[in-house]
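Appendix B, record 7
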Amino acid sequence: MNPTARFELNDEPRPLNGGETGSKARRELRNHRMNILLANPYELDDTGGVTLIVRMLGDHLLQSGDHPVYLIPGENNNSPYEKVGAVPVYRANLRPPFIPGHALRSRISFLLFYLPTCWKLARLLRRERIEIVNVHYFGRCWTYFLFLKRLLNFRLVISVHGSDVLGSEGPQNLRWLERKSRRLDCMLFCSEAFRREVLPGESSLNQRSVVVLNGIELDGLTVRSDAASSVNSIVCVAHLREHKGQDVLLRAFHQIAEEFPGLTLHFVGAGPYAPVLESLTRELNLNGRVRYLGNLPRPEALREIASARIFCLPSRREPFGLVLLEAMAFGVPVVATRVGGIPEIIRSGVDGLLVEPNSPSQLAETLRRILRDPSLSQKLVREAKVRVESHFGVARFFSDYRQMFQNLINLQDDRSTRAI
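Structure tokens (predicted):
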């Protein structure tokens, strides 16, 4: 595969002996009903972007006539005792091989339960006749599947989302995947910039990497009228972590707060950076102008975005930025940083405005431009709606994902047929 291509796993299976028979076989392969295990590290009611992607995949695989199955952390169960959106849910207690601060205990626990856990996962894969395991947000608790690849006939796809390969454990996770790269069929990224940031040119994982840009469900995300913006607020929805850059937004807001006395700043999300941000809010004398709303149920978070005057994502790194699509679909002007996959979503000056990261003054001036110029705001909103509908709807996203799954099965089945 060419590692620079955006979506690459689209090679047709090679012709079989006897042209007409080969064509028929390829049609049958393409129409194959797929059994796919979607492994998610969070509960399925989690409001984060990873779970949103997993749930969209599960729902649309089911609608397309495929057989999706969810796997999430928890106590082992030998049969799905619950369903989410008609998709069966299994739980497994997947112990990682190493836990910082508990090195000896975690290693002993891992070794004691490794084979029983593999056996239970193997039973699940056989019972549901799983052909593809799609792991989301890679952590070493998922390494059981790398072992099972040696025993069972399935395709392994790992979808990385950000901190799993860029965070504190990212280097270790990548080294692990490099060592086991031959057992990996596909490593999927949500933007080209994210792939380039994670994989050096000499990485063995490049040959197995694919980019599928994220998408969103547009139903229900209707463009608001001007009257719908009843809250004079700048809204940021993101985990409260240093790499999300909320401190930069606070400093930028401080620079424009006096000029726009009715304007407020709302943070939706929670995380370890909250005490730092709250302390900075007091230091800047912004008490009463800044609201920390914590984690909100998804409908409430969407309402907060829809009612905003501006949506801002000031990240220092951002593999994609799914929430930007939601703000654009709602008709909220968007300001974000020129990092990661964000420029693959937003064309600065056309459907949003981009600034450099770590620049409170530049961010303040950009926010000021939108607040002062309603015609600019309307232009950005109009173009953003077209952009989301034409490039980032769930139909395109799911089509790309499903095609990647299907091609993996086609290539595997075609090799098996040629071997016979």
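Remarks on this record: The mean pLDDT is 87. The longest strand covers residues 67-73.
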